[in-house]
Amino acid sequence: MHLHIPRSLRFRFFAALGGLLICAIVALAAISALVIFPVLQAEERGAVKRELDRVERSFQLEQQQLLAQVRDWAHWDDTYQFVQGDYPRYKDVNFSQEMFEDMRYQLMAFFNKAGEVYFLAGINPTTGNYQTCTTPNDECAWMESWVNRMQAAIEEDKADQSAIYADQEPVMVSSTPILRTDRSGSPAGWLFKTRNLDDEWLSFMEEYTGLPINLSLIQGAASSSDAFSFSGNTVHAERYLPIYSPLTPASLGIGIELNRTSYLTNLTTFRYVLLWTAVLMVLVIAVVLLLLEKIVLKPLRLLTQFTQQLDIHETDVHKLTRRNDEIGLLSRAFQEHLTCQQQLNEELLTLSTHDALTGLPNRRLFDQRLETAFNEADATSGSLAVMMLDIDHFKLYNDHYGHPEGDVCLQRIADAMHSLAQTRDFFIARTGGEEFCALLPHTSPDKARDIGEQLSAAIDDLQIPHSTSPVKPFVTISAGIAMLQDAKSQSPSAVVSCADQALYLAKEAGRHQVVLFRQPLASTEISPHNTSP
């Protein structure tokens, strides 16, 4: 009789627990089908749309930048005189293949006030050679289709805008009337600039957005809705932009490809799955504890509380770990495992949010802090400055001194920046190889620029030799600053993009400078001296 009691208890225990687990699995399956999966699907589509929005904003920023460059050229007395034939040296002074390659221009077309071609310059997409001409014939015949569309735009009074043209390949086109610098008088003609949306431009956009991008030409008017295509673990999304086509409507499809796994394992997924799993597990644990209370010895019940609740009295913990039986061994192993796990969690948190070389916060933590600072600025209508810093000619430093010395240089620069950040109470992170970013909440433009100059001076004071630098014989930095203007209409990525533009201007102006981004670009302030773009 006594031999059958343990078997009977074991059977009853596992039968009860098995039935409970079956009920939990059925309930979880029902909840997943009715609640979690629809939420995941909606969240996934929303995340893909946000990525499409980001790519479209980057595309629009490129158009705005090209339009600003066109207006900078067209609203210039020298250009005004050139189109009227009063400045014959204009094209010799201002045009070169290097200029077209640096600015990523494909074609610049000047038209007189009658809409006739005055001067054409560009890089032949077939040969890669720089060419100038006055008519799109012979060796400049490749310009003819673009010139015809430009003249059509002039006739339709659509020559003061950014648009997309497409023949065999799409190009970005910006145009504006040619005026005097003070905008007085009537237009002397029109200026068009094109930027080819080729593989090189796609590579630039992919590096800028961090997303794989592809373009496709589509016949017909642009659709107002995005297209989604799901295949395995990837989703292909496409957004359509209108193309200027005088004869037949057409559109340009901007497509991205994302890994669906990342969306299925995002925070919202974890929150819903863990919520319902926790509820079910609480029920399971409650029933298990009830069964254990009736059929298992007191030491085992204490061990269960120790491993599940972690709030057992220290005296009971001491008793459990000092036991010389299997329960004592299990208690000591659990305690060691818990201590090790806590240490690993702390180390993992540090590794996931800080740069291993410099000890500064990394890009992940910077993005989190940026989002928080952006929301605070939105809620309090406060100011926010974003600064991007870059070590001048750091590749030359690595090539000359070697990567080990380059690592030492990065560490010294990071220490100097961190010391100043602690003194001035702002956040700084290493976001790339030689790139750093800073967040300056509640900071005015002048104060932000002053901090940028202090950072530059702190690096200068290190006097790290850099014999191959064309800027200084020691290591220097350049900085670009952007201010949050309106949190309702701007996004964190847009402010960072403006800071990146300011950094680009600092490099263009000779490096070792601090640039404060302002609209329009022509009014950008540069320290220690001013330079116009």
UniProtKB/TrEMBL annotation:
Record keywords: Membrane, Transmembrane, Transmembrane helix
**SMART domains per the record?**
GGDEF
Stored InterPro entries: CHASE4, Diguanylate_Cyclase, GGDEF_dom, Nucleotide_cyclase, Rev_trsase/Diguanyl_cyclase
Q: Where are the transmembrane segments?
A: 12-40, 272-292
Give EC number(s), comma-separated.
2.7.7.65
Task: Provide any one GO MF term from the record.
Answer: diguanylate cyclase activity
Which SUPFAM superfamilies does this UniProt record tie to the protein? Nucleotide cyclase (SSF55073)
Q: Which residues form a coiled coil?
A: none
Q: Which reaction does it catalyse?
A: 2 GTP = 3',3'-c-di-GMP + 2 diphosphate
Which biological process, per GO, is one annotated for this protein? Answer: cell adhesion involved in single-species biofilm formation
The prosthetic group or cofactor this protein requires is: Mg(2+)
Q: Which CDD domains does the UniProt record give?
A: GGDEF, HAMP
In what residue span(s) does the GGDEF domain sit? 382-519
Can you cite an annotated GO cellular component? Answer: plasma membrane
State what protein this is by name.
Answer: diguanylate cyclase
